[in-house]
Amino acid sequence: MAMVDEDTRAEAPSGALGGAAAIEVSGLRMRYGDHDVLCGVDLRARRGEVVVVLGPNGAGKTTTVEILEGFRARSAGEVAVLGADPATGDERWRARLGVVMQSWRDHGRWRVDELLAHVARFYAPYSEPGRVRPRPVDELLETVGLTDCARRRINTLSGGQRRRLDVAIGIVGRPEVLFLDEPTAGFDPEARRDFHDLVHGLADEDTTVLLTTHDLDEAEKLADRILILAGGRVVAQGTADQLAAQVPADAEVKWTRGGQRFVHSTPDATAFLRGLLADSGDEVAGIEVRRASLEDAYMTLVHRHETGDARAAASAFAEEVR
Ligand SMILES: Nc1ncnc2c1ncn2[C@@H]1O[C@H](COP(=O)(O)OP(=O)(O)OP(=O)(O)O)[C@@H](O)[C@H]1O
Description:
Residues 23-256 form the ABC transporter domain. Pfam families: ABC_tran. By secondary structure, this protein is an alpha/beta fold. Among the domains are: 23-96 and 176-240, Rossmann fold (3-Layer(aba) Sandwich); 250-291. The chain is 35% helix and 25% strand. α8 packs across α10 and α10 packs across α11. It starts with 22 loop residues before the first strand and ends with a helix.
């Protein structure tokens, strides 16, 4: 588990970063060989905030998360997690973090409860007032719905059960910052809903959560703020509603008249409905209005990137939030 020398002291980077935010990233760059994956990412997360990172395959989400976790060295930029540079964070700093990586396939012959008890021991010296570490294993098993699997060997778990165990490992130390890289891949609907409740509960405990997903409904349910990464840049961020408002998308109006269903796309649903009701208000029933969604915004913003306009999308976004 130790990724850095125990004696290496965590130091906050100098410059514009530091302060009360749990995560602060400025001008983050990552280059693999001659491939620039991150070209200047800025990101900030407050304590207790749930930030969801969206982006197409290969956008650099995992790379960003692994840099913040201290598992990957960055090419350039300033990064502070809980006030420390992840590249030099010590064990005390690491004990304040929780990590759920995209895949973690080890300890197959261990039993579920043994592994959790083993990992839990790492956190025991790092309790703080109001934050007792680690969480009791029984409580943890119950929280992630693995009580019935406690004595099972890990290599006999299903994909979804293994993922639940990954989440348990991520939260065993009652983290102040929790990184979750596609945590719900393989979850059935019930596990997914339980996981969403879990994240809401963690946020209530003032845990900062940074989560990547390809599930836009999940992003909308969980995020205080959504961030879209494309072309190595943050091309947009905000709540799902704020993002939807950024893209010009028609609303879809549906209604029934004389037993027949009608659908109409319009940029101004209110004006259209006024007209519809004025013309045939008595006969119209079952009105539904679907406004631009997070999915519309995501598709538009990512499409701009894929058509080579990521830099323009990022500067348009910077202009809008100024
Ligand atoms: N160790 C590495 N060496 C070289 N290239 C890498 C390395 N790790 C990642 N990459 C490349 O960096 C880019 C970003 O990868 P990353 O895994 O961060 O994307 P992602 O947004 O998490 O994608 P996904 O949604 O598919 O999980 C990809 O083009 C990937 O091939």
